[in-house]
Amino acid sequence: MANQAKLNAAGKDFDFPVLQGSVGPEVIDIRKLYAQTGKFTFDPGFTSTASCESALTYIDGDEGVLLHRGYPIGQLAEHSSFMEVSYLLLNGELPSKDELDTFSYTISRHTMLHEQLATFYRGFRRDAHPMAIMCGVVGALSAFYHDSTDIADPEHRKISSHRLIAKMPTIAAMAYKYAVGQPFLYPDNNLSYTGNFLRMTFGVPAEEYEVIPAVEKAMDRIFILHADHEQNASTSTVRLAGSSGANPFACIAAGIACLWGPAHGGANEAALNMLKEIGTPDRIPHYIERAKDKNDPFRLMGFGHRVYKNYDPRATVMQSTVREVFEALKVTDPLFETALRLEEIALNDPYFVEKKLFPNVDFYSGIILSAIGFPTTMFTVLFALARTVGWVAQWNEMISDPGQKIGRPRQLYTGPTQRDYVPLDKR
Ligand code: CMC
């Protein structure tokens, strides 16, 4: 039968519907599998499992394609702005000029943090990792903004979404200021979303901060490149947390915690640290051998991806942005040469070719961020700042779905079978 997949289990045939999205591979709908067969599927790491329906982002990993609401990432990175991409992700269509102005204005009206939150920062050690601060502060927002946590109310969801997008730059900049011992700067809503963030991070009260347009543009583009990436680990975490009805601030804090890992958002920090450790191009072969050695846990950070089996289209834009930032700031970084050479050697090595391991978004981003002046510990914070719009849009999409259920995976149990309790004196 067309649009049916047949499964033969224990000598019996079962039919399951085959669904077709607007683009991409067909999906076998196994929701009734357990009810019909008494069996589960086993798919640790979700390598073959679609966890939800979504209309936000599409990736074709074999072709290196990334679309947001149908628009290719390269076009958005070149022609759009982070505010416009945020509107697109949240609302499904590109905004008119009026819609964009209204949206940008609304976001700018939510940039301040409750003053009491400054006290909250002071509870952290000065050498705390800014991602640790971010997890804590974002989670704590639900204790400050009680008037936008009713997830059944679309207006509450909208306000909390705007608050999260607007406050992330302030929270991130304050995490940086706290670490370097400088006073927090209040937002300046006359600046763009990204210009305001740069000023809050690098400005000081004693001087006028001048936003360098080329740096503002590069930073804005980096935010666009990180805005959403369909059902990655942190987004799935946000959806899973949200599926229980948890408030949006708590859900985004869960996403931040997941993003921190070096296999995910933490890779940008790890990639630059790796390039620093390699240092000069002559040392690359040694690290390539280590990455290929099964007995060595070392991996090329910023290389490989669960979905992309081709060049990550975000890495292409990142690589050209490195050059733009160097030119604007009149700087260079020998690590860029090391990175280019490492890429060239890896892409010609049979190990990386056969496993289809290509540079991902994190490979070049650290070089740009470092040139702009961010310490490595801030890299993942910037990823979290930008990804917040994707998390919030995905969370909204899930909550608005009438078929939404609590996420509750099953397991293949391998522990002991039932046995009787043995009293302490008999063990
Ligand atoms: N260096 C060396 N070998 C690698 C690498 C790497 N960076 N990535 C994958 N491999 C090998 C791996 O050892 C395995 O080999 P084998 O089949 O012989 O066991 C094979 O390639 C497949 O790897 P996997 O770990 O099974 O693949 P995965 O889809 O589970 O992992 C990944 C994807 C991104 C976690 C992994 O490629 C990795 O650890 N990369 C380095 C970390 C990184 O750059 N992460 C950022 C991802 S992009 C930003 C984001 O989404 O957050």
CATH superfamily: Citrate Synthase, domain 1
Distance between the termini: 59 Å
Shape: globular
Arithmetic mean pLDDT: 95
| Uncertain parts | none
Order of helices and strands, N to C? EEEHEEEHHHHHHHHHHHHHHHHH
Task: Tell me what the structure shows.
It is a single chain. With 427 residues, this protein is mainly alpha-helical. It has one domain (97-404): Orthogonal Bundle (Citrate Synthase, domain 1), CATH 1.10.580.10. Helix content is 50%, strand content 6%. The chain has 18 helices and six strands. The protein has helices at residues 33-37, 73-79, 82-91, 97-108, 116-121, 130-140, 154-180, 193-202, 213-225, 233-243, 248-259, 267-278, 284-292, 313-329, 334-347, 350-354, 362-372, 379-400, and strands at residues 4-9, 12-19, 27-28, 57-60, 65-68, 71-72. The strands form two sheets. A three-stranded antiparallel sheet has the order 1-2-3. Strands 4-5-6 form a three-stranded antiparallel sheet. The chain is globular. The model has no long low-confidence stretch (mean pLDDT 95). Residues 229, 232, 263-265, 267, 291, 299-306, 355, 357, 360-362 line the site of carboxymethyl coenzyme *A.
Secondary structure layout:
Elements (H helix, E strand, L loop, with lengths): L3 E6 L2 E8 L7 E2 L4 H5 L19 E4 L4 E4 L2 E2 H7 L2 H10 L5 H12 L7 H6 L8 H11 L13 H27 L12 H10 L10 H13 L7 H11 L4 H12 L7 H12 L5 H9 L20 H17 L4 H14 L2 H5 L7 H11 L6 H22 L27
Antiparallel strand pairs: 1-2, 2-3, 4-5, 5-6
Helix pairs in contact: 2-9, 3-18, 6-7, 6-11, 7-8, 7-18, 8-9, 9-14, 9-18, 10-11, 10-18, 11-18, 12-17, 14-17
Bound molecules: carboxymethyl coenzyme *A.
